[in-house]
Amino acid sequence: MSGMDSSEQRRKRKRMLRSYSQAKHYLSLRRPLILCFSFFIFLLLLSFERFRPASFRPVLTASTTTLSLLSSTASNSILESFTNRNRNSNSRDSSPLRVQDRILFPDHILLIVPNRFRQNDQLECVYHRLSNGSDELLQDGEKNPHLDFAIRPVLSTDVYDELRSIARCPLPSNNYSEAVDLRRRGGSYDWTAGINGTAYPWDRVVYEAVIDIDGDTAVVFVKGLNLRPHRKSDPTRLTCHFGLGNNGNWEKDLGFVLTTEAVTAAQEVVRCLLPRTIRNNPDKTHGVRVTIGYNTGSARAPVHVTLPSVATLYSSKSTVRNENQKKKKHELCACTMLWNQAPALKEWVMYHAWLGVERWFVYDNNSDDGIEDVVQELELQAYNVSRQSWPWIKTQEAGFSRCALRARDECHWVGFFDVDEFFYFPRAFRHHRGDGVPGENSLRNLVSNYSYSPTIGEIRTDCHSFGPSGLSSHPSQGVTVGYTCRLQSPERHKSIVRADLLDVTLLNVVHHFRLRQGFRHLNVPENVAVINHYKYQVWETFRAKFFRRVATYVVDWQEDQNQGSKDRAPGLGTEAIEPPNWRLRFCEVWDTGLKDYVLGYFADPATGSLPWEKSLL
């Protein structure tokens, strides 16, 4: 019986081999036809792109993927299948945690995860020990996992965008890899998962990208190009690359790559032409990774380098054309970037709402002081505030460029100023006319006078810097009431801009933006409006500035550079040590104008409390 079975199996194998041979012969005869047909389609598409400024160059290392890409319907299916795969993976809460990308910062490692964390997740960082050839092996020859990784709790977690989350882990010890992984506390873990991972250094990486559908471009944010600050750079030496894949290293694990031209470059922002496939399907771009390339080496022997990238395009409501065009725009919005300034946010929002600000964009640069609860409370009180996690340190200019792009679809005017800066209108506040509270909507009325101006695209207001005003502890009723002594002369200015009139580079120096050709700024006279900048507060609050500055081109105060700059406090060294008589410094003029106005019109008549002192949570 066994002999009959074996002979029957041999006959089946012969038939399978014969069928395989015939199929192989059939394909070999038709391979030239397939290649010719593929080449014909490739030339046809090149002719379509001939008169467009973008160069459409598929990489021909994966022939089947490239052939599919060259057909518009096939490319749509690739994007759609990739989108569905991402969405399905995010719908399974019980799925294991997979780290998509890692970035090595000076004081922590940032992990990017392609799904949302569960509300009650307790996560741990998993560190893999570097191999030294002397590790204890198990019986099957594999390394003992209990000897080869270490566990530490995460520093913090956050939602990054519609589909991704981030986690911050402590830096590894010297004998452990930077390829840190995540696991749920008490859960199972595949200890081999992170061995081949990579952590990209923060000073050389593409970290963010967003589609600007109005210009058929992608705006890409980059560290490592070392472009000159505060001016435009030549984009012709740069190239833009779009690909599918889970690896930020452009040399590995990418299904296909499309290359286009960079059309502008300034500081850390590069604007790239979109490939036609993405241009025609902006709502199906989930997970398309973007990077920037450049030439190095000599002119005779240039070497093209592509930067590692963690930047992926994710379609959203603002990506789809006409989504927001039917909505009425807010007349005036505000954008700020902060780190651990949650206690100041309520006063800043509530006060400026009275002046006419309708919408707030808060870019949170790694705060851990409960700012989410403050934003939630403001939302419960009908303030239109959104918080965007912005984990990229020292990128305030880039963050403002990103905010300007976002605000353009919702706002006519957007102001860029900090949560310790408050607009004050001396004439409107002091000379009351008619019934009601003076000064209501003063800021919105100011900008709306120029909403249809053919030349004005930016309004600049001078800042007066206030000192500790004799205080030793933070004022309980807020900065507008507590700090009343300032320097005589104004320092710097802040700007409110027409969001649709910014230069295509989105170039800014924090205090103001570059405008489109033909538009200019307007300086507001001091007797009309000024900004009270509560810059030098009590030492307990002020010393936080020594931790890290958020602006890209402002030197951190621990560094012994630019000690005479206005970005520093005069007379301070490089250590957070309170100078003698700090509470009496920076006091040349007593100015109680804003304090008198706030207490006169905002305080509860019965209790004397101010609106931002109350809490709903």
TrEMBL record:
Q: Does the keyword Secreted apply?
A: no
User: What name does UniProt use for this protein?
Assistant: Glycosyltransferase family 92 protein
Enzyme Commission code: 2.4.1.-
- What organism is recorded for this protein? Prunus dulcis
- Which family does the record assign? Belongs to the glycosyltransferase 92 family.
Topological relation to the membrane, as annotated: Single-pass membrane protein
Keywords on record: Glycosyltransferase, Membrane, Transferase, Transmembrane, Transmembrane helix
What the entry lists under Pfam families is as follows: Glyco_transf_92 (PF01697)
Single GO molecular-function term? Answer: glycosyltransferase activity
Q: Where in the cell is the protein located?
A: Membrane
- GO CC terms of this entry: cytoplasm; membrane
